[in-house]
Amino acid sequence: MFSRTTFVAAAALCLMIAATDLSAAPKLSVAEDLFNFGYAPQNAKIGHDFWLHSVGDDTLKILKVIPGCGCTKAPLEKDAIAAGDSTRMEILFNTGHYRNRVEKHPRVQTNEGEGNRVLTIIATVVDRPDSTYPVIISPYKIDLSQFGEKRVDKATISVTNVSEDDLDLTMVWVKSDYFTVKLPGSIGPGETAQGTIALTERGKTISFENSFTLQLSDMAGSRFTVPVKRSMREAAVKVAPAKGYAGGDK
Fold first, then answer.
1. Which of 127, 155, 182 is the last residue of a domain?
2. Lowest-pLDDT range, 56-60, 101-105, 154-158, 218-222?
């Protein structure tokens, strides 16, 4: 037989557990909810990764991602995030025939019940990327496509300082899963410096379209985003004719 004291203690424990269960709730945190690509060329796909963090005490479920328009995609690594865990959401923006400043607002809908979380991406799309200021980047689009057996896994890039000031270059973001970028730390006025972009082991095995973004030390803090593309196609396999067969009709 349970005593009255034991019954009261058990009831109190059940109430505590129930209260804990009721207070458990998912919660989304996005450390960075805005990204500025800066100058970007037309007719290219540029990208950035946003990290979604589950900071509640229950599993966060991503119910829906609303890209914002047909020119934006937002693939997720996973749609259920355990408490304390995180996932990456890749934003891909097609600059198309846009010109000047473009602003898009992808939205994330979760089970936390606080409405959609709004993210912001900004780009200044230029139709003459070979005439930008304070630097000109060449080529302004990187194509590392490989068709056939000849290996294509790196490229050279040049940055020309067309201003009258020394400029420091800082890498803001790079799709490091796919490629690495090495650029000079600074460029004097009127000077041109060389950099390199090289595919990672993973990048060598897949087709993708993404980008990297750098920032300058001018007063405007100018940013430039360079698209990087890779398509792959296997070389055609030549089949030798059967032994003793000379071809032609019989």
1. 127
2. 56-60
Q: CB–CB of 225/123 below 8 Å?
A: yes
Q: How far is CA 206 from CA 16, 94, 126, 223, 230, in A?
A: 52, 20, 29, 28, 8
DSSP helix, strand, coil percent of the chain (3-state; round to 5): 10, 45, 45
The tokens describing 32, both together, are 């960075």
Query: Does some domain include residue 8?
Result: no
Are 122 and 105 within 8 A, CB to CB?
A: no
Q: Which domain holds residue 218?
A: 129-230
Model confidence at 24: pLDDT above 90: no
Q: Which residues have C-beta within 8 Å of that of residue 170, sequence separation ≥ 6?
A: 214, 215, 216, 217
User: What's the pLDDT at 228?
Assistant: 98
Contact 171, 157 (CB under 8 A): no
